[in-house]
Design goal:
The complex is a heterodimer of chains A (411) and B (255). In chain A, α2 (31-48) packs parallel to α5, α9 packs parallel to α11 (339-368) and α9 (257-293) packs antiparallel against α12. In chain A, a hairpin with a 2-residue loop joins β9 (295-296) and β10 (299-300). In chain A, the strands form 3 sheets. Chain A has a 4-stranded mixed β-sheet. Chain A has a 4-stranded antiparallel β-sheet with strand order 2-3-7-6, with helices on one face. Chain A is α+β, with helices and mostly antiparallel strands and 411 residues long. Chain A contains 13 helices and 10 strands. In chain B, α2 (71-81) packs across α5 (195-201). The radius of gyration of chain B is 21 Å and the shape is globular. Chain B has 255 residues and is α/β, with parallel strands linked by helices. A 9-stranded mixed β-sheet of chain B has the order 9-8-7-10-6-1-4-5-11, with helices on both faces. Chain B has a two-stranded antiparallel sheet with strand order 2-3. Chain B has helices at 40-54, 71-81, 101-115, 134-142, 195-201, 242-251; strands spanning 4-9, 12-14, 36-38, 58-67, 85-90, 119-123, 146-156, 159-166, 169-176, 179-183, 206-209. Classes of the chains: A alpha+beta (411), B alpha/beta (255). The A-B interface holds A 31-32, 34-36, 38-40, 42-43, 46, 72-75, 78, 87, 89 and B 37, 73, 76-77, 80, 192-196, 198-199, 201-202.
Amino acid sequence: MVSLLSRSILHRLSPARAGTVSCCRGFVMTPEHEALKENLIKLIDKEINPKCDQWEKDRIFPAKEVFKILGDAGYLGISKPVEYGGMGLDISYEAVAAEAYARITSGGVGMGIGIQCDIATPALVKYGNDELKERYLKPTISGDIVACLGISEVGGGSDVAALKTTARRDGDEWVINGGKMWTTNGAQADWMCVLANSSEGPVHKNKSLFVLPMDTPGVNVHRKIEKMGMHASDTTETTFEDARIPANHLIGEEGKGFTYQMQQFQNERIYIGAGTIAAMDICMESTIEYTSQRQAFGKSILDNQYVHYKLAELQTELECTRALYYKCIDDYLAGEDITAIATMLKLKTARLARQITDGCLQFWGGMGYTDDVIVSRLYRDLRLMSIGGGADEVMLSIICKFMGTEPGMRG
Amino acid sequence: MASLRVLVGCKRVIDYAVKIRVRPDALGVVTDGVKHSMNPFDENAIEEAVRMKQKKVVKEIVVVSCGPTQSQETIRTALAMGADRGIHVEVPKGTEENLQPLAIAKIFAKLVEKEKPDVVILGKQAIDDDSNQTTQLLAGLLEWPQGTMASVVEHSDGKLKITREIDGGLEDISVNLPAVISADLRLNEPRYATLPNIMKAKKKKIEKMSPEDLGVDVTPRLKVLKVVDPPVRAAGDKVPDVATLMSKLKERGHI
């Protein structure tokens, strides 16, 4: 029994199986990756960062304006099909772009961009019919319309299978009833990729994904939610009352929605992992800069062994996490199933971000607590990572399924 | 309408945002593992050439860089901004520090012979050596008119109207073509490359050659004796009134 169990864990998680090397099979940083990152950062420094403080105060950023600038520069469809205006590049380029977006000083803006280019669209790309892609994917890639993702509900965020929104087939239309919660870009979106129960049956097989235009009668954006961080991102609660959409707004096959969404989550997790690591780099760099200059008790804060040793510990953790991120991209490009690794990446980056922002904030002292410095914003913004996009506890549950250790899986 | 051909120079230098550290041997600064980028004034030069191409004044932009293998990255940046093809004059790694303005000017003079451009645009100066000499030397070698520290460049009827930023203010000149120009920061705002252009740049041609291929001797004429950090700024003193200020200044021999 024990040997069977240990073999199954090894089979699912061990990185080094015969014939495989765990790194550098598919992922190589090319000059084009560097150029993408450098030029995207230039765009951000020119068009986005100067306005972030204002958008934080306004509690919203102008999505259409920002997405059009990014769309014109070709950054919204990096891995999307060329026939719909995308660049047709692989996920390593998307990940590098996510690293660049972490340079946006307002985390909420980066989050909104992530929804538009990586999180709301993968299922549409893979499974949507041509007409749907022409009308919704193409202008999303060009930055002419704003997308959002409707999965979580008031009744449940992490428990996706238990969602209550329904889609009832009526002639050549689907009728949507219910509501969604925690929707990023929800106040500005033109369409929502929405997951709903479309038939009777087991909860993993009775759901479908739809393209729901936000101006459909019956769709009501209830309120914009005021949050602890990610201030520039509009997060909304929406209700649907007999909202009717054409039959061909179904993405892919009826009943496969849950599976499609689980696949979409992998892209989301890579994007979050890449961006969070880059944000932690910024937190560490700015903290070293600040503490090297700040003087107290006759020397710089950084010159205290406790401080530079603690930062060394955090940096070591960060490098280990970065290696996990590269492995994730590498495995993906080699055609492996990355569900377990991407889930671990999400879990680890979120938890490390809490440790790093909390540890760094302490070293900034009083200044760190003010709105005048980046570390306080990073502390608030990155705290979301352990909750949104799948809470830590959900990640742990998924990992346990892979390890075969969840109750009921053994014996 | 588009008839002019432009040769633009760009140099790979330590990124302007990097904190420079003097090498232990005090003969230079640390370059290993340090972030490098295109010289900012050269970005202005490339940008001006691309704008002239967009206005259909220019039909071809050839970008040149002299340096080690990594200078190709700088050329690719220029290609992504809109240059058509590149020339990399390669020198062995570690010897790029010895490439001085006169050698560069001679290399460019040979390339002008080869490529026959109508305009050469260079950055005003490189931020590592701050020489501000190459444009002037090149103009002299070619016996071409020069418009240095340009903040405005306009083309009409085979002439260039240039506004120069000089100590006294702004100076307007008119030069006949062919001519050499050096770009100042206020000439334009360099663009960021779009992703389609970054990927297209991969396919653009970069020709490689050495200074020897051009028959140019790049032996340095100037020798660096010592490189030191600038003196640390001493703390100042606050004085209560002008009388005290005067007496302190006298005391310290400043007046």
